[in-house]
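Figure 3 (text version): structure tokens given as input.
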């Protein structure tokens, strides 16, 4: 359970995230030879007392090879053990978007109080806060640079300054991108180059390049759009009205979609779409709180789950990095996790923050975040007693 101190940051043994780290044999040998052995010899030569050999303030050097928990190590027990490790509750409005950097231990958030905030996820600390009163902050995603983000505007949309390329380092707008006429509801960065996509309630999906102000590609469609790149950046998907998912080759999207999937029996709009890290699965979340896992190659439905309705709040679901589990919020303020292979619910937790509108699993750690009016970091807590999860509602293929 999180503890609150003045309504701000609370840490609960955040170092327990290291329980999800493994030390490689090569790194352990380097640690002994290049770090502990010199300390030991120095203490012997200088005739220092023995307690100096292993100081409680020992800092692990950079060359020690510590790798995040490998994908095969995520199991039901680890997923069930997830607990709140840190809470940030000093937002003056709902958090509208969160994104992890692909290669750095960083998280960025945008919220209704017009702030964009940068966090270090390795130690759960706030690094930087910038405010954007003129345009607001709605959707946000990292570029490849750890200090630069793309942020969509909430105000003055008639000025055509719908997207901004921001430097968090010096709080500077590097470029405006003009084109959308309404709120942006989907935003994603290509994992391999400077391209990115945005989907708007003006019923368009636009393709952009960070180096150019003008739109590079335009798709007009019906309904609320949602878009996503696969993890290799070779394919992107666009969801549209009627449960249709269109797949495009990112190198020749002007030729039109090379495949189209239909989510049979569900005509609700797709509010979020994600690819698994291995590119084999797609995760769809609909506006009526149905969650589907599709085969990314043929569109076949692998499994589906349902959660409680959340009026006026669109929920978000996320894959774990190994693609074996799905985690989602729910309209009753709970968080749920399911095994894709077994098609059963593995865990169910109280979110502590009401209905979470944002949810993402970190690409480099055994950690996920959920957000609404507060931001919570979830990490493994192996001391937590195992509790048999409640039976969740799932449907087959």
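Below: residues designed for each position.
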């Amino acid at each position: 359970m999180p503890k609150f101190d003045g309504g701000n940051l609370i840490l609960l043994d955040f170092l327990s995230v290291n329980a999800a780290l493994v030390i490689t044999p090569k790194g352990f040998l380097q640690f002994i030879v290049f770090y502990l052995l010199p300390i030991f010899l120095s203490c012997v030569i200088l005739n220092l007392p023995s307690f100096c050999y292993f100081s409680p303030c020992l800092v692990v050097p950079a060359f020690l090879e510590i790798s995040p928990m490998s994908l095969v190590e995520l199991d039901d027990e680890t997923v069930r053990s997830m607990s709140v490790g840190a809470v940030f509750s000093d937002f003056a409005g709902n958090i509208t978007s969160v994104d992890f950097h692909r290669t750095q231990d960083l998280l960025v958030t945008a919220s209704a109080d017009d702030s964009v905030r940068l966090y270090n996820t390795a130690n759960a600390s706030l690094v930087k806060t910038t405010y954007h009163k003129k345009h607001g902050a709605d959707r946000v995603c990292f570029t490849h640079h750890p200090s630069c983000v793309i942020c969509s505007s909430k105000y003055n949309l008639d000025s055509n300054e719908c997207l901004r390329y921001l430097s968090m380092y010096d709080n500077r707008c590097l470029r405006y991108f003009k084109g959308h006429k309404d709120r942006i509801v989907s935003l994603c960065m290509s994992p391999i180059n400077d391209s990115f996509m945005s989907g708007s309630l003006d019923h368009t999906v636009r393709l952009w390049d960070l180096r150019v102000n003008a739109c590079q590609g335009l798709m007009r469609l019906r309904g609320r759009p949602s878009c996503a790149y696969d993890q290799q950046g070779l394919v992107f998907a666009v969801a549209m009205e009627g449960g249709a998912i269109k797949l495009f080759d990112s190198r020749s999207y002007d030729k039109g979609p090379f495949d189209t999937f239909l989510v049979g029996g569900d005509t609700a709009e797709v509010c979020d779409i994600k690819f698994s890290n291995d590119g084999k699965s797609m995760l769809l979340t609909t506006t009526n709180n149905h969650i589907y896992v599709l085969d990314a190659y043929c569109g076949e439905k692998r499994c589906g789950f349902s959660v409680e309705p959340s009026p006026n709040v669109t929920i978000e679901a996320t894959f774990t990095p190994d693609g074996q589990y799905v985690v989602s919020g729910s309209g009753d303020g709970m968080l749920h996790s399911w095994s894709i292979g077994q098609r059963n619910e593995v865990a169910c937790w109280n979110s502590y923050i009401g209905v979470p509108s944002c949810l993402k699993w970190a690409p480099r750690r055994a950690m996920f975040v959920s957000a609404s009016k507060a931001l919570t970091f979830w990490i493994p807590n192996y001391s937590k007693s195992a509790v048999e999860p409640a039976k969740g509602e799932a449907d087959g293929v």
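The chain has a mean pLDDT of 83.
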